[in-house]
Amino acid sequence: MGATLHVCITCRASLAPAEGVPSPGAQLHAALCEAPAPEGVQIRPVECLSACRSGATIALTGPGRWSYIHGPMSVADSGAILDFAAAYAATTDGIVPWRARPALFRKHVIARLPPLGDF
Amino acid sequence: MGATLHVCITCRASLAPAEGVPSPGAQLHAALCEAPAPEGVQIRPVECLSACRSGATIALTGPGRWSYIHGPMSVADSGAILDFAAAYAATTDGIVPWRARPALFRKHVIARLPPLGDF
């Protein structure tokens, strides 16, 4: 079982909601789904990751792996997000080596969580 | 299998490290371990939840449950944290009803994550 890239589709990125305009989170999700997902990665929309002050927000999870929550992210970051999701999926523990992390993912980290059952 | 209360023991809570003084995160972990853990809750120390700007930080996880990351927390919050962990452990999905959440846990939420495999 591979990795899951969760994309918060309710994220407003601190903007007031505009009628008829998808939220920044929904726009990010749409952009990420334009190309085939990287090998071993499933892209899943989620309603609210409760990181509203740091949206748009994404999270990477996977069995036996540390989970990482990143934000703020934007449509312009889509390519970098997919590349990083592929790197995450290629790990066994979810920890992409620090040197291999683009600055975006070094700086825009909201939190991480140990693997479920890792104790 | 019950819930796990992760406590970041490296959290400095924005303070400079002081020689010979445990970090605020380590102090919080020690305070939480002074009494027996609530039923169905395991308390586990973790080195860095990568939420350093919002420390001291805790996280609640469990199989089939949403995970929640909360901070900043302090030793003074220990009793409330244990009560909330017990309420979390009593759920099947990790979602403590909004009305049952103390203000501390409504306001000091850093992020949440869907259950692993919930797709």
Condensed summary:
Chain A contains 3 helices and 5 strands. The first copy, chain A, has helices at residues 24-32, 78-89, 103-107, and strands at 3-8, 41-46, 58-61, 67-70, 109-113.
Share of residues in strands of chain A: 15-25%
- Distinct helical segment count of chain A: 3
Query: What can be said about the biggest beta sheet of chain A?
Result: 5 strands, mixed
Strand order in space, largest sheet of chain A: 2-1-3-4-5
Helical/strand content category of chain A: alpha+beta
Most extensive interface: A-B, 28 and 28 residues
Helix and strand element order of chain A:
EHEEEHHE
Multimerization status: homodimer
- Average pLDDT, all residues of chain A: 91
The low-pLDDT segments of chain A are none
Share of helical residues of chain A: 10-25%
Cα distance spanning the termini of chain A: 21 Å
Please give a handful of descriptors for the protein shown.
homodimer, alpha+beta, five-stranded mixed sheet, 3 helices, 5 strands, globular
Describe it.
Two copies of one chain form a homodimer. With 119 residues, chain A is α+β, with helices and mostly antiparallel strands. Chain A is 22% helix and 21% strand. Chain A contains three helices and five strands. Chain A has helices at 24-32, 78-89, 103-107, and strands at residues 3-8, 41-46, 58-61, 67-70, 109-113. Chain A has a five-stranded mixed β-sheet with strand order 2-1-3-4-5. In chain A, strand 3 (58-61) and strand 4 form a beta hairpin. Chain A is globular and about 45 Å long. Chain A starts with a strand and ends in a 6-residue tail after the last strand.
